[in-house]
Amino acid sequence: MALQVNSAMVRNGALKGIKVTLELGKIVVPTTIVVTVLRASGVLDAVAATCAPLMGLFGLSGDAALVLISGYFVNLYAATGSILALGLAPREITILAIMLGFAHSLLVEIAVSRRAGSPIPAILSLRLGASLCAGLIFGRML
Question: Lower CB density within 10 Å: C or N end of the chain?
Fold first, then answer.
């Protein structure tokens, strides 16, 4: 049986697509603007210089710390906005994506885990530990 596409399906899909785009834009656009302002003001350079030794363990530049912080504490869309504004190399984006795949949106997910009755220290340690170990491994492999 073939799927029959009609105008109502196309209209419904387009409306849902626009809605999702607007929702993501609420996070990505402001994050990109904030990161751009931080870079222009010199604040980002100071943060990057401070974080560079730690980020070097993962084969990342100091700028990548902002991506990790926004991904760990806000969400993946904030991390995406940071990546867009920073113009990181594909290698760094790949390492960050792997790390954030293990641990992202931690504040929200800790609250969800608490409501589910999970042991927060264990969950947090496991997720951050996996993220950092993956960063160490892939930072050396890529």
Answer: N
Domain boundaries, the chain: 28-141
Q: State how far the Cα of 125 lies from the Cα of 4, in Å rounded to an integer.
A: 49
CB atoms < 10 A from the CB of 24, how many? 13
d(CA 142, CA 140) in angstroms, rounded, equals: 6
Strand ranges in 57-117 using DSSP code E only, listed in sequence order: none
pLDDT tens digits for 61-93? 999 999 999 999 989 999 999 999 999 999 999
Which positions ≥6 away from 30 have C-beta within 8 Å? 81
SS3 at position 2: coil
DSSP state of 62: T
